[in-house]
Amino acid sequence: MQEIHGEKAGKSKKERTPMPEQPAEERIKNFNEVALGYTKEDALAEASRCLSCKEPKCVEGCPVNVDIPGFIKLICEEDFSGAIEKIKGTNALPAICGRVCPQETQCEALCVLGKKGQPVAIGRLERFCADYERQQGVQVPEVPEPTGKKVAVVGSGPAGLTAAADLAKLGHKVAVFESLHKAGGVLSYGIPEFRLPKEIVRQEIDYIKQLGVEFKPNYIIGRIKTLDELCDEFDAVFLGTGAGLPSFMGIPGENLNGVYSANEFLTRVNLMKAYDPEYDTRVRVGKHVVVVGGGNVAMDAARSALRLGADEVSIVYRRGEDEMPARREEIEHAKEEGIIFRLLTNPVRILGDEKYNVTAVECIKMELGEPDQSGRRSPVPVEGSEFTIPADVVVIAIGTSPNPIIFKGSEGLEQNRRGTVVADEETGATSKCGVFAGGDVVTGAATVISAMGAGKKAAKAIDEYLKEK
Amino acid sequence: MAYKILKKEEIAPSVHRMIVNAPDVAKAAKAGQFIILRINEKGERIPLTIADFEKDKGEITVIFQEMGKTTKQLAKLSEGEFLEDFVGPLGTPADIRKLGTVILVGGGVGVAPIYPQAKAYTRAGNRVISIIGARNKDLLILEDEMRNASSELYIATDDGSKGHHGFVTDIMKRILDSGDKIARVVIIGPPIMMKVGTEVASPYDVEILVSLNSIMVDGTGMCGGCRVTVDGKTKFTCVDGPEFDARKVDFVELMNRLAMYRNEETKAVEKYEEECRCGLH
Ligand SMILES: Cc1cc2nc3c(=O)[nH]c(=O)nc-3n(C[C@H](O)[C@H](O)[C@H](O)COP(=O)(O)OP(=O)(O)OC[C@H]3O[C@@H](n4cnc5c(N)ncnc54)[C@H](O)[C@@H]3O)c2cc1C
Ligand SMILES: Cc1cc2nc3c(=O)[nH]c(=O)nc-3n(C[C@H](O)[C@H](O)[C@H](O)COP(=O)(O)OP(=O)(O)OC[C@H]3O[C@@H](n4cnc5c(N)ncnc54)[C@H](O)[C@@H]3O)c2cc1C
Ligand code: SF4
Ligand code: SF4
Ligand code: FES
Ligand SMILES: [Mg+2]
Asked: For residue A18, is it within any domain?
């Protein structure tokens, strides 16, 4: 089997099987998913490129160590149910990870094929298996005997969902507290429909509900109940509250009408469906939109603005394209769609009219200076290079930090200067007895898969803690 | 998850009182806090102040004025029906302590948020002088409740149909001028009233607080849509407020920000009322 794969790859398959996509000129007019997913034939062709390495490097690149050659081999054998089972052994949300993981810096970055040609499209294959399973109808695993222990999970993003699912599978009674009206965290309010259909998120949450997990939306810990109160009511608590507090730049004009944090802009568009006239929530549709930032959040905001009907959308980023933290694929998609990239550029102030509406963004050109201690060349402004970009909507996507609301009434929960919760890397244990934490609330804004990894480790540690308790 | 409307009545033309079953919210509620509700899946999230709460019964009272689409739609709901979402208590509770004498000024539906504060200030051992007003006597709300909750109650109407003919701030000025030692003034109402009230009270040696009503989405500090400028710094009304030191608030910015969606809001009401006429709602 291995030779056959090797031969095939050696002969003709240097390039990966392309992903069927909506054409750019069409997709900018709708919010439907851009990448359409592999057909069975595509998946078989792509899977056949994998060399089934004995010491697969790719697995090391995956934060949860999915058995990549294992599941790809099963695809080759057309055992798609087996393949998804294999993936789910370590990754509870493959339909989501296959779509949003930054594969080019994780699993695919280390694939041996990448040395000479293109790496195996691991993410796309993972997505294929998950989508196949969803079409067949997901099997709910048997839930073991109840242990009689109760665990509270705060926050329903990928960290909380993973912890909840794993704890439920171990027989613990789990309640998930979520401050918004809908579960999913960033998966629901942040990442747009065209990149991650909300139906998929809903199905994953339904699956977790079927495991017996109770969801409590509209429930803010720190307001309705404090963490201390949860500790009294439950045997253990997992904090997966994310990094939901938006940063602003602190430049003049930032409170003008039309200036949004990416969180507000994307919440209005995704969670509240402002793009659909049937829904009551509004968002300002700009003619000229400027998005500040270079991460996934900036790409999502820019591409959403375009789909809402903007004439021109530009991304303003103070470093160069190579430094952009966004997934490669999203940068490419954004370019195909006509988003203008203004690199090495930084806003200095936002201008408005007498009614406080945004009219333009004044920017300054940047150049890369001497390397700093970390070896990274940081951008410095070029004096006298100021210029203005006309704009009626500006979206600030320069980062987020944990929402401090959780610290109200949480005696003894240690936090860092950056506002993150201090937690053990292996177990998620915090300074507060019985409280574990993971995901963005510990690391600061990171990735879906790392949040899930943290939720997984914490679930295991919580289980051990409960056994000893 | 749904929240039952236990009671609903129109207490003045286009002003409604609604009692909602929300035990967890009621248990945690304090004066000065608010809730955010959503009528149904397609609805927007709107904030309303907690006008009263019964911890034992698990009830929250809100009082709202019909303004646009959502409040008009809310007004059409009946007892026994359900709200899709009802989250709270939000915001930092009002800073209520024993201070001596406080003046509470409420204008229009602003009387609704003043009422729980009047009760709380009285309970904390203060002498509470309340001044409430409206455009005319029919629009005046919570008169009896406010009288019971206060040491003294003054009334003003714009047209003179009840009490003082003029503004609540006229009465406030008269009391401040009288030389009585006043520790604090709390003003809640339309932004323009809070702005004018602040200007009137500013020269006096008295603490002035206002409760701001900026446009909100989540109400938890996650979107920043509710930002206001206080003392030259950006604050999030939903978590840093809603109560702020009035002298430091940039009211002009607040009023301009409140007008952000005015055109769309007008269109939404027209469309909604048209649909109502056609019997679609
Ligand atoms: C627009 C956008 C695009 C992104 N794109 C990608 C991508 O393509 N790939 C990728 O890997 N990562 C991406 N990320 C990052 C990724 O989404 C996050 O790293 C991940 O969601 C973090 O998961 P989490 O569970 O820690 O927190 P979150 O997903 O933030 O969930 C936290 C949840 O906790 C709730 N909560 C907070 N405080 C409380 C409280 N006090 N009480 C109750 N509930 C509370 C919040 O409402 C939220 O629902 C993106 C992020 C954004 C914003
Ligand atoms: C903390 C707080 C407490 C409030 N308490 C009360 C109360 O007790 N009783 C009451 O009648 N009103 C209260 N309001 C105002 C109330 O939220 C608005 O009247 C309501 O949102 C209008 O919605 P609409 O769709 O009916 O009208 P629209 O026509 O959509 O809006 C009318 C006006 O209300 C404001 N507004 C619109 N959407 C929002 C929003 N999402 N958040 C805040 N303001 C908005 C804008 O200034 C707008 O021009 C409060 C607002 C805040 C921020
Ligand atoms: S979970 Fe993410 S990193 Fe891991 S194999 Fe799947 S796509 Fe790659
Ligand atoms: S490194 Fe690449 S070729 Fe090797 S097993 Fe992993 S995916 Fe297959
Ligand atoms: S309403 Fe979103 S931060 Fe205040
Ligand atoms: Mg409205």
From this structure: no
Q: Are A449 and A96 in contact (CB under 8 A)?
A: no
Q: Is A280 close to B227, i.e. CB distance below 8 A?
A: no
pTM exceeds 0.90, yes or no: yes
A11 domain residue, yes or no: no
Q: Give the tokens for residue B227.
A: 């930002």
Query: B166 and B70 in one domain?
Result: no
pLDDT (average), residues A78-95: 91
- How far is residue A188's CA from residue A201's CA, in Å, rounded to a whole number? 7
In a domain, B144, yes or no: yes
Same domain, B71 and B24: yes
Of B74, B90, B106, which closes a domain? B90
Q: Are residues A369 and A410 in the same domain?
A: no
Alpha helix positions (H), chain B: 23-28, 69-76, 111-123, 143-149, 168-177, 191-201, 237-240, 251-258, 262-277
pLDDT of residue A13: 67
Q: What is the pLDDT of residue B280?
A: 64
Query: Residue B273 pLDDT > 90, yes or no?
Result: no
CB contact under 8 A, A223 and B224: no
CB-closest option in A263, A273, A281 to B222: A263
- Which residues of chain A lie closer than 8 angstroms to B223, CB-CB? 246, 261, 263-264, 267
Closest atom of ligand 4 relative to the A120 alpha carbon: 7
Judged against a pLDDT cut of 70, whether residue B25 lies above it is answered with yes
Report how far ligand 5's centroid is from the alpha carbon of A405 (Å). 12
| Contact by Cβ (8 Å): B245, B184 | no
Note the pLDDT tens digit of each residue in A183-235. 999 999 999 999 999 999 998 899 899 999 999 999 999 999 999 999 999 99
Residue A9 has pLDDT above 60, yes or no: no
Annotated binding site of B: 63-65, 223, 226, 238
Contact A220 B220 (CB under 8 A): yes
Residue B215 belongs to a domain: no
Q: Which residue of chain B comes nearest to A245, CA vs CA?
A: B222
A220 to B87: CB separation less than 8 angstroms, yes or no: yes
A268 plus A375 within the same structural domain: yes
Residue in the block written with tokens 């005015």? B262
Range of the domain at B61: 3-90
ipTM: 0.95
Residue A72 tokens, joined:
């790809």
Phi, psi of A429 (to 5 degrees): -60, 135
What is the domain count for chain B? 2
The answer to whether A355 contacts B1, with C-beta atoms less than 8 Å apart, is no
Structural domain harbouring A34: 24-136
Distance, CA B97 to ligand 2 centroid (Å)?
28
Same domain, B65 and B164: no
By most ligand atoms within 8 Å of CB, the mutation choice from B48, B85, B109 for ligand 2 is: B48
Query: In percent, how much of chain B has pLDDT > 70?
Result: 99
The Cβ of residue A200 has, within 10 Å, a number of other Cβ atoms equal to 20
Residues of chain A neighbouring B260 (CB-CB closer than 8 A): 257-258, 284
Q: List C-alpha distances in Å: B185 to A57, A225, B189.
A: 68, 31, 13
Out of B25, B42, B264, the one facing A224 most closely (by C-beta) is B25
Let me know if residue A10 belongs to a domain.
no
